[in-house]
Amino acid sequence: MELLVERAAALDVGKDEVVACVRVPGPGGRGRRQEIRTYPTFTATLETLADWLASEGVTQVVMEATGQYWKPCWYVLEQRGFALLLVNAHHVKILPGRKTDVGDAAWLCELLECGLLRGSFVPPPAIRQLRDLTRYRKRLIQAHSAECQRIQKTLEDAGIKLDSVAADILGVSGRAMLKALVAGERDPGVLAELARGRLRAKLPQLRQALKGRFSDHHGLLVGLALDHLEYLEATIATLDGRVDEVIAPFAVARDRLDTIVGVGKRAAECIIAEVGVDMGVFPTAGHLASWAGRCPGNNVTGGKRRSGRPTKGNRWLGEVLVECAWAAAHSRDTYLAAQFWRLARRIGKKKAAGAVGHSILVIAWHLLAYDCDYHDLAATSSCDATATVPASAPSPSSRPSATRSPSNPPPPNTRGFSFQPRTASSAASRRSPWL
Question: Distances from the Cα of 89 to the Cαs of 67, 111, 200, 301, 348, in angstroms?
Fold first, then answer.
């Protein structure tokens, strides 16, 4: 088979050691010379590994995506300027019964030199930092929601029906009542007087709701939960500030995604953290949707089509897209809302949310690839609706425009939305985000 990479290296990465295989031309240019070495995964020894690869003249290095263990090797070699390739271990499985670390490294190296490997998407360092921050923030927000539910469960156990009267038991009034309960106050009348604002119109109901069997045991649980909530809120605020600093170079892209119906500031930050801003990595919107696991898969054998369920893809991105889809479904007079309810009648709400999430991802690809804002043509628009053409265009056209300059080709208008160049007026007039 034709060799495409003359000097190749492959790494089989584990937690404690990495097996490296190098294949280079043999002496006198005859045949191939293969050498395999094993190194511990400490940073100092990884630097030694990089020195050895450089001395062999290696031009490209491949490694499997093994949990988190591939990252130290990747970062050291990335700083040295090697061309790196990260592959899915499922795609390069060796034959059963012949699997060893040495065999895996040699097999990967042979596949690499023949050009038979397809690399996974690894974002640049700035996007990786943003991804770590947004994912950690999401987990903290989920922990915050769980703590709120834990407080409601404890109050229900104590017979305190505060959530039946107050819309938010953790608002200003609710927190004041809970802190008073924790401090030892049990008089429903005194507790009800802590209500503020419109909640004071429900003082009789509050007195009934705050009468229960709240004991010191419940006070301990609620007090600990409130302390934990305050810590989580402070930590989330700190992460929000750090995310704003890291995403500053990509603020224009974030604001552009913010113009999509159902996508707010946090959701836009999460989308950028998962896919980046350089759409050159994904040749088409279909490539991006396939990578994210937002489109049906292919499973055809013997001329029969079997289940084409989507792949797992990027679950972090998938969760954000589905949340945005549900938010868009509650908007009024928008194409995405019309799409959701049209599909929900036929395939159910969950699948409809997945389909709308796919549309949002396709829109995001167009906005980032063509440097434009989202312009919704409303629920009554047809697929070939007329889009607003920039004044700089040579003549009116029924096709949407997503150009910053005449050299950029317009994206295809296959849905009930169009794309327009970003201007100050368009940013000011867009509808409020849901997320």
Answer: 10, 13, 61, 24, 35
CA distance linking residue 139 with residue 197, whole number of Å: 32
Adjacent-strand bridge partners of 8? 23, 60
Q: For the chain, what are the domain ranges?
A: 8-113, 126-246, 250-429
Domain 8-113, what architecture? Answer: 2-Layer Sandwich (3.30)
Kindly report the pTM of this predicted structure: 0.82
In whole angstroms, give the CA distance from residue 333 to residue 109: 55
pLDDT per residue rounded down to tens, the chain (435 residues): 678 899 999 999 999 999 999 999 988 878 899 999 999 999 999 999 999 999 999 999 999 988 899 999 999 999 999 999 999 887 787 767 778 889 889 999 999 999 889 889 999 999 999 999 999 999 999 999 999 999 999 999 999 999 999 999 999 999 999 999 999 999 999 999 999 999 999 999 999 999 999 999 999 999 999 999 999 999 999 999 999 999 999 999 999 999 999 999 999 999 999 999 999 999 999 999 999 999 888 888 888 888 777 888 899 999 999 999 999 999 988 999 999 999 999 999 999 999 999 999 999 999 999 988 888 877 555 343 333 333 443 333 333 334 344 445 544 444 555 555 555 444 444 333 333
Helix axes 349-370, 315-329, angle to 10 degrees: 100
Q: Is 357 exposed, middle or buried (0-12, 13-18, 19+ CB in 10 A)?
A: buried
Q: What is the CA radius of gyration of the chain?
A: 28
